[in-house]
Amino acid sequence: MKVKKRKIKKKVIYIFIALIIVIIGSIAIKNHIDYINSNYYKLNQVGYNDEEIETIEKLSEKQIDIILSKKYDKKIVSFLKQKYFIFDNLDKYLEYTKEFEDRKISDVVALVNVLANEEHYDEEIVKPTDTSKGILMLVNKYNYLTNEYAPDDIEEISNYYSYAGNSIKKEVYDHYKDMWNAAKKEDLSLIVTSSYRSYEIQSNLWESRSESFGDEAADASTARAGYSEHQSGLALDIVTYNVTMNEFINTDEFKWLQKNAYKYGFILRYPENKTEITGYDYESWHYRYVGIEVATKIHELDITFDEYYAYFIK
Ligand SMILES: [Zn+2]
Cα–Cα–Cα angle for 172, 174, 175, nearest 5°? Predict the structure, then answer.
């Protein structure tokens, strides 16, 4: 009896050990399968190292799958690390760098984000402006206002603040008056020299330039009809008395605007050294109203409105 009992005990122990071996084995197999299916393993197989994988793994599953469908490319990781990287533009960044190998990677991101890798006014690229964005709508050489668009709350600007015949959206006018008064307190005089322009006025302006100097010269100085920010009623050309627009850059009023315009919701729309991004030469007189909050952010980030729109608004 005692011997039989001992035999049974032994059997139970063997079965128990066998069971443990099977469990440990299947855990090991499962772990191995998990490892093979992991993003880490797959990215490693494509050729990415640990540090690169760490960057790529911050993306969503869908985005990682897209990276996995491509050959190893260390440039992908460089793009991922860029502050204003937009995943949907990845292929365009890579394409652009192939063509222009010497461009700084941050410049490539900025240019592609704002479509500046494309021709101005290219019929296949241009889109009607999304006017539902209100004071944050984008009007540039790739986004246009239709001939039907006109702001609904245009007010005439008093000759106290402006040369004759100017008008602007009410909200912009109110903020401009605040800015004007703040400048006045420091003995500085601002004056509006151009403001809201209808589609028709812009059209006549471009046509007359084009007739006198040719299309190319007209494009260099004047926006085509629909493509002028002045049609939005959100842009003001500001100077001071007795200077031309080109001389404004040398005035104290300009220096003051550089430091203070954002506090009233305005940004310098076409800054220095940003022609490739904005499509316009440096214009010290052209200010765009975007509201105080966004103007402050743009001032702090030191980027153009085109870049801000691509990354934060669109
Ligand atoms: Zn202007």
Answer: 65
CA of 238 to the centre of ligand 1 (A): 8
CA of 282 to the centre of ligand 1 (A): 11
Q: What does the pLDDT look like over 57-73, one tens digit per residue?
A: 999 999 999 999 999 99
283 is catalytic: yes
pTM for the whole structure: 0.90
Question: Among the options 155, 283, 293, 300, which is catalytic?
Answer: 283
Q: How many CA atoms lie within 13 A of 178 on its CB side?
A: 16
Q: Give me ligand 1 centre to Cα 208, in Å.
A: 17
Distance 144 CA to ligand 1 centre (A): 15
